[in-house]
Structures are given as C-alpha cells and as structure tokens.
Design brief:
single chain; binds zinc ion; little secondary structure; 1 helix
C-alpha cells in the first residue's frame, strides 16, 4: 500500500485547509436599515421604502416565506 509517507518531498508549503464557516440558523442579518428621517437628509429615501412581503406559504403580508413561522 502506498501512502503520503512514500510521496516524494517537494519542499513546498502544504495547502491550507478549507476555511471553517459556521452557518447560523435563521435569516442572514444584513447591515442595519437606514432610518427614514436620516435617509431623507442623505437622499436615500427611495432605498428604504417599506416593502409589503407576501408570504408564499401562509399568504399573509408582513413577512416572506423565509420568515414564515410555519
Ligand atoms: Zn407565512
């Protein structure tokens, strides 16, 4: 049986292990939403329009399917 012990030495640095990523439960937290008053002054009022989510699962407004409790 051949193994790493029998491989020729290259003198190179061994490859880095894959980065450890911890997947958190729930929806991904984005950057804080801009305050409407603050946005008015900075001209970003268009960006923070309140979107009416319609849930595909329970057909209720206010949240989307990702935020559905069902
Ligand atoms: Zn729902």
């Amino acid at each position: 049986m051949s193994g790493p012990e029998l491989w020729p030495q290259t003198g190179r640095v061994p490859p880095l292990p894959p980065p450890i990523t911890i997947k958190k439960a729930g929806r991904i937290r984005r950057l804080r939403s801009v305050n409407p008053i603050e946005a008015e002054y900075s001209g970003k009022a268009e960006v923070c329009k309140v979107r009416k989510y319609l849930c595909k699962i329970c057909k209720e407004q206010g949240h989307n399917s990702r935020g559905c409790k069902i």
